[in-house]
Fold each of these.
Amino acid sequence: MNLRVKQQIVILISLFFMGSLLTVGYIESERLIPKKKAKAVVTNKNLSCVKCHSEKTPGIVAQWKESRHATLGVGCMDCHQAKEGEPDAWDHEESLVAIVPTPKDCARCHEQQAKEFAVSAHAVAARNVGSLDHFRELVAEGVAPAAGGCQKCHGSAIKVLKGGQLDPLTWPNTGIGVLNPDGSTGTCSACHSRHQFAPAQARQPDTCAKCHLRAEHPQLEVYGESKHGILFRARRGEMNLASVEWIAGKDYTAAPTCATCHMSRTKGQPVTHDVGQRIGRALGPIVSEKREGWEKKRKNMQSACGACHGPEFVKAAYVQYDAILDGYNEKYAAPAKKIMAALGKEGKLTSAPFDEKIEWTFFELWHGKGRRPEELTRLYVSDFIPEAEALSPGIAARLLKGK
Ligand code: HEC
Ligand code: HEC
Ligand code: HEC
Ligand code: HEC
Ligand code: HEC
Ligand code: HEC
Ligand code: HEC
Ligand code: HEC
């Protein structure tokens, strides 16, 4: 081999190494330097809004600019537009503006999500406030403070003043089932913080925990202390929350969040905005019954579990869940319900709720104290049964021993 050939080989090898180094350098820099954000597109009808609000409310415009909406040219008036004659049309800077965009406005482009949300328990949450379940709080706290508290989660009616501005006593209000001026119910911004509308934020447990917490509905506490919640906190950085599809088992495996199980995509399920679609049992009533179509609904839920657990494990988890509820129903809920019905028939109870002591005790069997196993037995044996016996001697023996 002459010197010239050797030189050429050395040059070739050097070039190859330099090429590799440059390629690796490029790949690494792509990873480290965040991708350039797509630019916000301001269309003609939104020019004046963006211009003036950049000064008057810079936070809102900045959040909008970070949204996917902005990059696609979906702007202020696509959501805030109002027509002449609509109850909430507000004459604002030469445009007719609705201050509260509702699911009806979103439905123009997100029909599927709006439809699913509209048939869910979330959308009727304001109407349900009047029913008896939380009546005790109404009695104990008085109607005014109760209404103030209830509506933060459940929602209540937003009232429009003359000229399209809103009654400050009823708005702001993003309770989940809020009754909107345009006749629609519920609000998407209970979970989707405006104006970014980022799925990554909606997928966080905190989004749901804003309402699903405390003794009456302790989902946050149950989740937080479960292995799922512990792992979510420990491995939050690995949750890939901003990925596009966010499928359990594909985009992340560290832990499930509330959304994973109740709403998000799984290998076999699309996103659903009807949070009842994956729930087989109604846990609200004292005797927790299976819902219509419960088997299918459970399968829907189990398609989430399957990303991280084996099928026998999942089946067994549900066996344990059902056993706890069936045991509770059989031992406490069904007999107590039977006794209350009999006391009513015998004329020992008035039709007014919560005016007899035993009605409070009965309520506590599945709210508050009754949720703690050691308290439950005491409450049933030492309070509920003696109170029933005092009203109608021998009632427990008559009903429960079939005499
Ligand atoms: C010249 C400035 C200006 C322009 C143009 C403008 N706004 Fe406003 N906007 C304001 C100011 C100031 C307020 C504060 C409330 C007020 O006007 O009393 C406001 C309030 C609002 C509110 C909330 C009302 C409240 O009580 O908090 C909405 C919604 C709104 N603007 C949307 C829009 C939209 C959509 C456009 C485009 C058609 C627009 N604005 C154009 C200045 C402007
Ligand atoms: C994708 C729909 C959407 C777009 C686009 C949008 N908004 Fe909103 N905006 C909402 C929703 C939803 C609310 C919350 C209404 C409620 O429930 O009270 C809201 C509330 C507001 C409010 C009142 C709340 C507050 O904090 O003062 C203002 C002002 C406002 N938007 C201005 C704008 C401006 C300016 C733009 C354009 C830069 C814009 N919006 C774009 C949906 C949108
Ligand atoms: C004029 C049409 C239009 C309106 C009105 C509209 N959106 Fe959108 N929205 C879009 C489009 C287009 C996308 C992008 C869809 C895609 O990526 O496939 C989008 C995406 C989204 C996303 C996902 C964002 C992301 O980063 O992936 C959410 C959440 C969302 N919209 C919520 C809402 C809500 C809530 C409202 C009503 C307050 C609303 N949108 C009103 C057109 C609209
Ligand atoms: C912190 C948020 C929050 C507050 C405040 C709140 N609720 Fe609730 N409420 C919920 C949640 C979440 C559920 C669903 C619980 C579940 O399914 O486990 C619920 C369920 C209910 C139900 C049962 C609905 C059904 O059909 O099963 C009624 C009735 C109710 N609440 C009434 C009230 C009343 C009355 C008040 C005020 C005294 C009130 N709530 C205050 C969050 C709240
Ligand atoms: C109870 C909370 C909640 C409410 C209320 C809610 N969303 Fe969502 N939404 C979510 C979650 C969580 C995701 C993310 C799902 C995922 O993992 O991709 C999402 C995703 C979306 C997306 C992204 C598209 C998709 O299918 O992934 C759109 C669009 C959207 N929501 C629109 C709406 C509209 C419109 C409303 C009101 C009619 C609404 N959302 C109400 C929780 C909610
Ligand atoms: C603004 C308050 C609020 C937020 C935020 C919220 N919820 Fe709810 N949720 C409620 C209320 C109130 C009810 C009870 C509605 C009723 O039955 O009247 C409820 C009911 C439910 C139910 C029972 C559905 C059924 O068919 O009985 C599920 C499951 C649920 N929510 C899951 C979620 C998840 C998951 C999230 C977050 C992605 C979430 N919720 C966010 C207030 C909220
Ligand atoms: C690992 C999956 C998983 C996670 C994570 C999860 N849930 Fe659930 N959730 C379930 C299952 C399973 C049920 C019972 C379903 C059945 O009865 O078939 C349930 C029941 C519920 C119910 C009761 C509905 C009723 O009948 O009243 C509510 C409300 C709820 N979950 C909300 C939440 C909230 C809020 C979070 C987060 C703080 C959460 N869940 C986290 C799987 C999950
Ligand atoms: C994204 C992954 C993921 C999903 C989805 C998921 N889990 Fe888990 N689950 C885990 C991890 C990780 C653990 C913790 C295992 C450990 O610590 O040893 C766990 C723990 C558990 C445990 C406690 C086991 C123990 O050793 O104490 C039960 C029960 C459980 N999961 C049931 C379910 C059910 C039922 C579903 C569906 C409704 C589900 N999981 C969905 C990841 C997941």
Amino acid sequence: MALYQKVCRGGLNISSIFHSPATIIDAEAIYREAKKPIYLHGGQEVVLRLQNDLADISDLIDISNIDELHGLHKEGSTLSIGAGENHAAIAGSGLVAQKAPVLCELASNIGDSQTRNRGTIGGAIASKTRSSDWNAALLALDATIHTTKTSHMAEDYFSRGGLTAGELITKICFEIPSKGIYLKQTRASSTDALIGVLVSRLEKKCRVAIVGSQRVAFLCPALEAALSAKFHQDVYDQSHIPEGILADNADASLEYQLNLVEVLCKRAISSCA
Ligand SMILES: Cc1cc2nc3c(=O)[nH]c(=O)nc-3n(C[C@H](O)[C@H](O)[C@H](O)COP(=O)(O)OP(=O)(O)OC[C@H]3O[C@@H](n4cnc5c(N)ncnc54)[C@H](O)[C@@H]3O)c2cc1C
């Protein structure tokens, strides 16, 4: 059922149509028919957008009532998390704590209580925020992002630019690590990562993923190769960090960021040893 909503902003009446479909098929059908639609889940990003450009959004499609987007399951060697699961549910899940405690730890340090209880993993990944903690987890746990159109390996998802119009993330499958540690240094004014480092030990390899404020997230193949030969913090060398990705920014100098990367990598490697 579609509800017609009128929102009054600065004396200007702006209208958008609110939909609340119960199935993925219905949500996609509404999206196809609408002029300038947007999906809405926890609203933590969308509401910020609404404050700025509601006039450009013809239809708000609330996908939070779609059961198919929920669920936490072990599927073979992976942990499957429904796109509609919020950060608090992931942080508090017994299954996640048992199979990939690093994801509980990561989720429990996102934002404040409201953000954790409203914001979803699917919304975080769809909006491709640069400093999103989930981006580090996607890369370090070799995740597959399942959507209504296809399945994206995390690395491809980032390099290809994300979702196409109307594509919905349905679930994310993370390889279950034998160990994993996520450490982040936040900005002074928020819980966003200035630098976040996730080190994981998977069945056949180890991964080191870094999230910063400039690029979505990146892996460190040279450090991973060095750790495969000897898993010890002493193998860390600054030359292992890909050049040209981190740069001076308003929050921190390049030198400070590289220092953080070194400190966090060494601590995480030591905890995973
Ligand atoms: C105060 C605050 C603090 C925060 N702190 C952190 C932090 O410390 N670390 C961190 O990593 N993140 C942080 N975030 C980001 C937060 O995690 C995301 O805003 C949230 O998870 C987005 O999810 P949502 O369900 O609210 O998305 P929405 O706002 O509902 O949607 C976001 C975007 O994703 C699309 N979308 C939503 N679900 C899907 C889906 N299943 N498939 C396809 N597209 C979809 C929407 O159309 C929209 O474009 C913070 C946000 C806020 C507001």
